[in-house]
Structure formats: structure tokens, C-alpha cells
Design a protein that fits this description.
This protein has about 725 residues and is mainly β. Helix content is about 10%, strand content about 45%. The chain starts with 17 loop residues before the first helix and ends with a strand.
Length: about 725
Amino acid sequence: YITPFKSLLKKQKSKWFDVVRDFNFNYVPSQVSFRADLQRQFGVIKPRSLGGDKYQAPETYDKYFIFQRDYIVRWNFTRSLVFDYVATNNSRIDEPFGRLDTKEKKDSVLRNLFKGGRNTLFNQTASFSYTLPLAKIPVLDFVTANVKYQANYRWIGASRLAVDLGNFLENGQQKEGTVQMDFNKLYQKSKFLRQLDMPSKIEDREKWRNRYNKVSDSVTTKAGNRVLRTRRILDKTAVPYVSTPVKVFGKLLTSLKQINLTAGEIASTRLPGYTDSTQYVGQNFRSMQPGFDFILGRQVDSNWLNRKAAQGVITKDTNFNYLFQQNFDQTLTASAVIEPVRDLNIAVNIKKSFSKNYTETFRFIDTTGGNNRKFMHLTPYSTGGFEVSYIAFKTLFGKFDPNKVSETFKEFQNNRTTLSRRLGTKNPYSSPVPVTPDGYYYGYGKYAVDVLIPSFIAAYTGQDPENVALIKQNDGRTRSNPFRGILPKPNWTINYNGLTKIKPLDKIFNSFNVTHGYNGSLSMNGFTSALLYQDVSRFGYPSFYDTVSKSFIPFFLVPNVSIQEQFSPLLGFDMQFTNQFQAKFEYAKSRTLSLSLFDYQLSEQRSTEFIVGAGYRKRGFPLFGGLKLPKFLGGGKKLENEINFRVDYRIRDNVTANSRLDQDNNFATGGSREITISPTIDYFLSNRVNLKFYYDRRKVLPYISSSAPTTNTRAGVQVRISLAP
């Protein structure tokens, strides 16, 4: 690596010059490799004729000649910027029919070989990865950031039986960025913040106040006179004194310890009917097709297809009927670690994922059946899924009766008029039409998808229906997310294990852990585009009115909306006493909501679970006194080893209820109370022999008459023997 500025700044000791001093580049690739493989097969089947030469059958041949070339290039342009390139080119050396028994046939094969053959498959991957030089900047050295871009390209030759249908062209791109922030490293830059984790000493107070000492020195001036000058000397061993109240406040200010961010996108395109070929790095330099933008992963649109059709590289065959396809996946994750006080750890995370698939038929056709053919984009269709981390527990702890319509469901029904008004006033196709007597705007009735989804989200997450996000129904691009207004919300896990450091409790407990966690998500999977969608005036809103559903046909149809959440646990204790007694308690609660937009039915499943556990551990517990095991099982002495007693008691209530819109009835469709008790005894005869006595009883009491109560009981003894040396 060449560092052009290192010699210029070698006398500069400041770290602020590191980003310039350490600038480097490399003009020589780290790796360049090429490999060529030739494979030829020739087989002849010659039937034997029993009727003489007059009835001799002709020979049949099984032969092929394959030429594969592999390319690898790795180039570290700098220590932080790395380029990787891998390509494979498969081709066939076409041969004349039959045996190569003439000079002309042999020369034909040689000419095709020296030309590289007829390409049948070309596949390449180019990737760039870069680490930002933030470590060279003192104020940002606590941040680590990486970016990566990868481009895939593939050309697949057409079958020799259907050359006019064209070749297949594929590309893909992958973008990824990660950021890691270590705030502990940032806090260590301050002497004051470093002392927050150190014990405070009274003597540090005076030492810090007097950290500057005045020293008088006699110096000689240029005129030859001796004068007395005073200067201050800093005591570098002095540290700030931080009192307890200041420490508490400082710990709260510095509670954020770490943040991790990851964002990624994966997109791909598959274009059938491409009539051009490849030369080098996937490009035909004679026709300059398909273009380096496509080779490097650009995701094309309809305008790009129209240009390629005008340039004559898209087939016009009347039998062509392949689909043009595009896929897009987007993910976003973020996590943070917070420690407001010692031994209290809070992990917060946010997740978002979105996927979309788009297909259409791009072909040369006259849809009226005449001879006026032209390239057309036919049957565009999109499918996809969406999921975000979410918070919905505001309505989790309300009263719930599976046989009664809940107040939350009634609020969901009432929200529909509010959302119909919001949508109707925004849509120019709806505004001029009078509002119906029941309060719904034209095109946004009580069962419209655009009305139901935000009404459901607002009711069951405790949001204001006037401010809940709406679905964007005006953009059909592959990258566009119709649910981008629904932002992810944090989930969390809390752990505290500092109770044993409190003086009265440290003699009672060896460990005492308190846990709490919440995990929730909102998802809409399997949404599809509507073929009947129209926007005649290009206002960005649907205009086609369906007289059956009395609603506008939206751009996207969503079959199902789901909300899942669980406190795992809502509150949990896990403790071990100094006398080796163990105790555990957990209270968990979960809910799953699934709204079907086909039959307008809501399925709600709730569960509540209590877990109580206790155990006791005893070392040196004599059993079968005087009995000795064989030496190969670790015997040779009295059996005074370890025994563990454990019992767990669990009660779980779960019930599923269905509610239908505009019907005043609610009914349970499933559910039960499960009671489980499972005591166990583990006895370790030695490090090789273990005995386990277990009993497990599970009783299920259903809440509906179509299921019968069941009880399952298991009991037994397990003997484990290890013969490993």
C-alpha cells in the first residue's frame, strides 16, 4: 500500500491528522486468476444389420464439446475498500454432423474453438465493500460503519429449438449497511464520566482542587537579565471527585451503552426474450447491449424496456409468452443496550421487513386481433408482504369475554366512519358525491380495505383514528411500500440482577434475577395488486367504483392483517438462596389478532400463563451408603455426590373467539385450561453415572363442548452412563 501523506505528516502527533496521514491506495490487484476447462464426449451407436449391406442402419451419435472459463479478480484498492469479481462463462464448440473424418470438419471445429465457442451461460458477481475511516477521527472513533454493494448478472442462451423466443437476461443487486456505536468508548474520553464507575474517595476532592501547582523559576532574558517567572504544573494523577447524587444523575445521562443499525436491500430482475449475446464482462461491445447499468445491478422500469424494444433487442415472436419478473426485499433492524443503573440491562430492538414481487408480460402483439402489432405491457401483477415490530398492549389488559362483543371491537366498528371521511375528503373522485345517511363517503364504505385496516390498527393499538397512518394506493413501482406510513415501534427485554448486592439481601440470596420482556409485531402478508384498479385522471387515488362492494377498487388488496404480542414474561423472578434452595415465578400473557378481509371476521386468541418452580441442590448426599462403583464408571470410593430436587407447576389459560363486523354476536371457537406438574430428581452417582426420576402430569380442560377433557401422565427412571475417556 502506498501512503503518500505519511512522510509529510510524520512530525504531526495529533490524531486529527490520522485520516490524512493513513490515506493509502494499492494499484496492483491482490489476485488475478483464470482457468479454462475443455470437455469433449463422442459416442457412436452402430446397429448391426442382419439383412446384409442392402439393409444397413445408419449410425447415431452422442457428442458434445464444452468450453468453460472461470475468472477471479480481487483488488484491495485501499485497506478499507475491497473489490471482488467472479465470473464463469460456459460455451459449446459446435461440430458438424457425424464423425470428424474430413479436413473441412476438423477445421470447422478448430475455428469454433479459437472463437471461444457459442456462449450458453454467463454468470458473474461483482462486489464492493468499504469500511468508513471513522476510527481515524477522534470524535467519531466510537462508531464503526460498513457498506457493501454486490451486483449479480446472468445471461442464459436460448434453446436451439426456439432461438426466436430469445435469451434470458437476469441481474440483481444487494445493498447493505451496518453501523455500530460503542458509547462506553465515547464516555471514556471524559475524566468526569470515567469516575462514574470508580469508587469515590474523599482525598480525591482536595487533590482535584489543587491539581495545578505554581512553580517559580529564574530565567535569563535575551538582554542578559535574570527574572523570576511563575508557571503552573498539572498533576496528571488527579481525578475528579464525584459525589453519590452526581453519580446517579451521571449514570442516567450515560445509560445508553450501545446501538447497532443494519439496513439491507435485495432486488433482482429477470428479462426473457432478449435477442442479443455477450462478449466481455456480459456486454456485447458491438451493439453496446444490454448496458453497464444493467450489468451492475440497476433495476429497470417500463421506460428501459421500451427503449430496448425500440433498439431491437427484444423478440417479436408471436409465440413468446414469458413473464418479466422483478423481486424486491428490504430489511431494517436496530437495537440498543441501555444500563441506567448498575446490573439493570434494557435491550431495545426495532425490526421492519418488506417484500414485493412484480410480473408482467411484455410482448409484441395486437390485443384487438388485427395486424397493428406493437410492444405492450400486459397483466401487471404485484404480490408482497410487510411486517414491523409494534406495540399494542394498550388494549391487552381490558375485560375480555369470548361470548360477548368487546368494547375494543365496537370501537373498531365506530372508527370506520372517521376513516371513511379522511379518505373521502382526500380523494377527488369521492369528494363531489354526497355522504351516505350512515356517514360513509362515496367509494369508502364500511367494508372497504382502505377503511378497515387503519380502523382496526387504531382500535387495537390505542391510537387516535384521526392520526393513524393510511395505506398509500398511488404507486405501483416495485420498490414502493404502500404501508410506509406504518412505522416500526420498539420491543424490549429488561433484566435486573443487582438485588444480591444490597446488604440485607446478600446473606439470603446467591442470585436474584428479575426479568420482563415484550415482543409485538404487525404484519400484512400476501397482499396483491388489483387488476381492476383505475386512476383515470392520474390524481393518485382509485377511481373505479365497484357497485357490489360499493367501494373503490384499491391498488393493493390485503387478505389478512395480524397483530401478535406477548409479554414473555410480564414479570419473572428466578432466585437461588444461600442454602441452595431455588425458586422461580413467571407470569406471561399473549394475544394474537387476525382480521380477515374476505369474510370480515376477527379471530382473537388470548393466553395467560403462570409458572411456579422450586428446587433444592445438595452436594455430598450419600445414597446406597457403602456401595462402590467399578473404577471405569468413576467408582473406587463412597458415593457422596450431588442430588437435585426440582418441581414445576404450570397453569395456562388460552381461548380463541371470533367476531363478525356488524353482527352483535361473539362466540368462542377453541380454548382450554392446561395444568401441568412435573417433579424430577437428578442424582449424580459420579461424573459418568446419572440417575433421573421423573413424573409429568398434564391435564387439559377445554372451554368448548366439542372437545373432551384429557389427562396425560408420564413417569419413569432414566439411567445415563458415559463411557467416554
